[in-house]
Design a protein that fits this description.
It is a single chain. The chain is an alpha+beta fold. It folds into two domains: 5-115, no CATH class; 133-369, 2-Layer Sandwich (BirA Bifunctional Protein, domain 2), CATH 3.30.930.10. It has helices spanning 5-8, 12-16, 20-39, 44-55, 61-70, 75-115, 133-147, 161-164, 203-211, 252-267, 320-323, 342-350, 363-366; strands spanning 151-152, 158-159, 196-197, 216-225, 237-247, 273-280, 283-292, 309-318, 334-341. A hairpin with a 2-residue loop joins strand 6 and strand 7. The longest helix is centred in the N-terminal third of the chain and has 41 residues, at 75-115. It is rod-shaped and about 135 Å long.
Amino acid sequence: MPVPLDYTRRTLDDIRAGSPEHVETLFTDLRADFDAAAAAVDTAGAWKSLRDAWLGRKSGILSAITDNWLKPAPPELKRAVGAALNQIKAHVEAVIEERRLAVEASADQLALAAERTDLSLPGVARPIGTRHILRQTMDDFERIFLSLGYSVAQGPEIETPYYNFEALNIPETHPARDTMDTFYLDLPPGALTQYLLRTHTSPVQVRTMEKQQPPVRIIVPGKVYRRDNPDSTHSYMFHQVEGLAVDTDITFCEFKGTIEYFIREFFGPKVKTRFRPSYFPFTEPSAEVDASCIFCDGAGCRICKYSGWIELFGSGMVDPAVYGFVNYDAKKLCGFAFGLGVDRFAMLKYGIDDIQLFFQNDVRFLRQFS
């Protein structure tokens, strides 16, 4: 801020020629100039410039007034000049302090306004996660069977050969127990029990029957592990849902009706089912369950190999030998069991041709099923 030349360079003769009234006029004009300059201060930088211009020790206006007006003033005017100088100095200091507080308060208000969240503005749109397609498929299974009175059971993924094989009537000579098919864990020194990664969720059926007397109606969703080379239809880790129903007077007709209801609820009411004789160690009689091709409505296409049918899963009536491992009376009880491949059902329902897509975490693929 420039220093007014007519205040700082007045000659000694101008002061001597003056009178107390003239001195009062000079300081009144000086105060008016300061007030006009102070009124324009609205930032910290402008306030600093005003302070330095008027209160600076070397080049400030009040220092110049002291040197050019007070010191050379004649004795009869020195008292009037000194008194007026003290008044203007007190006024300048008070106003500058007042402007400092106002500028700081304004800066605080601006900072608060910048930081304030306007709740009326739309929020930031962030991507929302979704359930994995396999989790959605398992939820569909659970929804259907829960509506039939089944409950959901869980069990360990690390099992013993007893629960994974023996208690399910799978003999030691069965090829499924070979290391070419099953992941066995290394035994620590001195260990007496062998452990493995379960090859199906059926061990949970045995564990449940050990703890619970009939009636039993459960499904068991979970991960299973087998020594399969990964390709478009195989993976060394995949998902299954085992089902078990045990009670008195359960017949194959009830088993057939349950399976047909489930398949139509999952794939749609137009899908037909058929049962083909098969063999599994823990069911007798055993059956493979097929469904009419959902892609060609049974007319025949490349996916169903022009047969009109797609193989879905294995099932059957529980072999009475299994009841001996859980202290059930095979003469009074009967039941059925089945094992569903969750990954396979998801591939069929959503037209997916590569099981590896489920495990590659490609967001572009997964977002299709949100």
